[in-house]
Structures are given as structure tokens and as C-alpha cells.
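Study this fold:
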Amino acid sequence: MTFKEIVDILEAEIVLDSDDSDTEIQSVCSTDLMSDLLHFSSMPRSLLITGLANTQAVRTAEIADIKAIVFVLDKKPDKETVEMARQKDIAFIVTRLSRFTACGRLYAAGLRSCTGENR
């Protein structure tokens, strides 16, 4: 599924687009605990869904090969976080949806967990 398709499914606003917005996203990770992301994220080209709108999310996403971050509940990252993501080519979108609803919509559309379960 492409980043553009995800934006549509989640009725999201693009805060920071990727250099390649046609990038294929293969799986989804949803957490506010960045240690969980590092432990469970095992697939490249994953999407992170989180309510943690700060630089820690970007740093961890880079390590875990996350290509885009979805901030839920209309949480918007500050300028420092956006600039860090721009430098690392990690896209940001913001949705009014909860993590639960965002995950459910993407699951219904065919994306699966980055942990490899439910394949």
C-alpha cells in the first residue's frame, strides 16, 4: 500500500511528505513505547502509528527503518521534530482518529502488523 493511500484511508493531513510519496508501506507498528518498536519491528518499510509527537519517535523510527509516522488524535509535532524528520526523510501525517481506529482501518485495507503475526 502506498503512503498516499494511507493518507486517504486515515483522512489524514500531510505535515511532512516523503521524497517518494509512492513508497510502498509493507506493515504497521502501533505504539507509544519506543522500546516496543525496537523490540517488535522486524519488517522494513513499516509505518509507525503513535501519539508520541516528539523527536524520540523520529530517532527510533530511523533505527527501525520506519518510512512514515502517523500521529493520532490530532497531535502535531513541533518544528524541531519536523526538521529532524525532514533530514532523515521520514514522512509525517496527522489524523484525528484514535490509534485503535487507525489500526483497524489499515488492517481492513490489508496492512498487517510489523511483528509478523496474522500473515
Observations:
- Residues 3-111 form a domain with the Udp-n-acetylmuramoylalanyl-d-glutamate--2,6- Diaminopimelate Ligase; Chain: A, domain 1 fold (CATH 3.40.1390.20).
